[in-house]
Design brief:
The protein is an all-alpha fold. The protein is about 80% helix and about 0% strand. Helix 3 packs parallel to helix 6, helix 4 packs across helix 5 and helix 5 packs antiparallel against helix 7.
Length: about 220
C-alpha cells in the first residue's frame, strides 16, 4: 500500500512539474502571438500562477542586475548607493497596486477578468524585458559608447514590447475593445494613485497615533517616577 501511494505521489509530482514547464514555455508563444496567447492563457488554462511568479521574480532579478552589472557608460545610477531591496520594492509595490486597481475597477467597466487572471497576464507580459535586458547586460561590456544607440534601441524595445503586451493581455482578459481598454488603463492608473494615496494616509495616521501613545507612555512614566 505504501509503495502504491509513493508511486502515485511521484506521478503527481512529475505531472505538476510537467505542467509548470509547459506553462513556462508557453510564455514565448504569448509574447509572439499575444491575441491568441493571452486568450488561451486565461480561458484555456494554458498558464499557471507558478510560472507567473517565476516571471515576476526573474523580472525583479533582471531589473536589479541591470543596475548593478551594466557597464557604467550606459547606467548612471551610482552603484554604492543602490539598495537592491528598495529597487525591487520600487517596482513590485506599484505593480501589485496596479493589479489590485485593475481588478477593483473591472466591475465598473464590466470586465470579465478575476484578480488571478489580471496578475497572471501582467506577469507573462514582463517576459520580453527579461529576454532582452539580460543579454544587454553582457552586451554593454563589449560595445563602445559610440555604439550606445544600439543598446538604447534594444532597451526601449524591451519596455515598449512589455507595455503593448500588458495592453493586449488586459484586453483579452476583460474581453474589451481597444478603445475601451485604453480608457480602462487610464482609469487603472488613476485608481492606483488613489490607492497609493490612501495607503500613505493610513500609515501617516498610524505613525501619528503610535507617536501619541509613545509620548503618553513616557509622560506617565515620568510623572510616576
Amino acid at each position: 500500500m505504501n509503495a502504491v501511494r509513493s508511486q502515485d505521489n511521484g506521478n503527481a509530482r512529475r505531472a505538476a512539474w510537467g505542467r509548470y514547464k509547459a506553462s513556462l514555455r508557453y510564455g514565448t508563444y504569448v509574447i509572439f502571438h499575444p491575441f491568441d496567447g493571452f486568450w488561451d492563457l486565461i480561458h484555456e488554462k494554458r498558464g499557471s500562477m507558478a510560472a507567473a511568479h517565476t516571471f515576476l521574480i526573474l523580472f525583479l532579478l533582471t531589473y536589479v542586475l541591470r543596475l548593478m552589472l551594466t557597464n557604467f557608460q550606459f547606467v548612471t545610477a551610482p552603484l554604492q548607493y543602490i539598495n537592491i531591496y528598495e529597487q525591487a520594492a520600487s517596482f513590485l509595490f506599484p505593480f501589485l497596486i496596479l493589479c489590485l486597481a485593475n481588478w477593483a475597477l473591472s466591475t465598473l467597466f464590466d470586465g470579465k477578468g478575476h484578480l488571478r487572471d489580471i496578475y497572471m497576464a501582467m506577469c507573462y507580459a514582463l517576459l520580453p524585458y527579461i529576454l532582452i535586458q539580460l543579454p544587454l547586460i553582457l552586451l554593454s561590456h563589449v560595445i563602445s559608447f559610440d555604439e550606445a544607440s544600439y543598446y538604447s534601441v534594444l532597451a526601449s524595445v524591451s519596455i515598449i514590447w512589455c507595455v503593448l503586451l500588458v495592453f493586449v493581455g488586459l484586453m483579452e482578459v476583460h474581453d474589451y475593445s481597444p478603445g475601451k481598454t485604453l480608457i480602462f488603463l487610464v482609469a487603472t492608473v488613476f485608481g492606483a494613485l488613489v490607492i497609493l494615496f490612501l495607503i500613505l494616509v493610513f500609515f501617516s495616521l498610524l505613525s501619528d497615533a503610535l507617536g501619541y501613545f509613545v509620548s503618553l507612555y513616557r509622560e506617565i512614566v515620568f510623572r510616576l517616577n
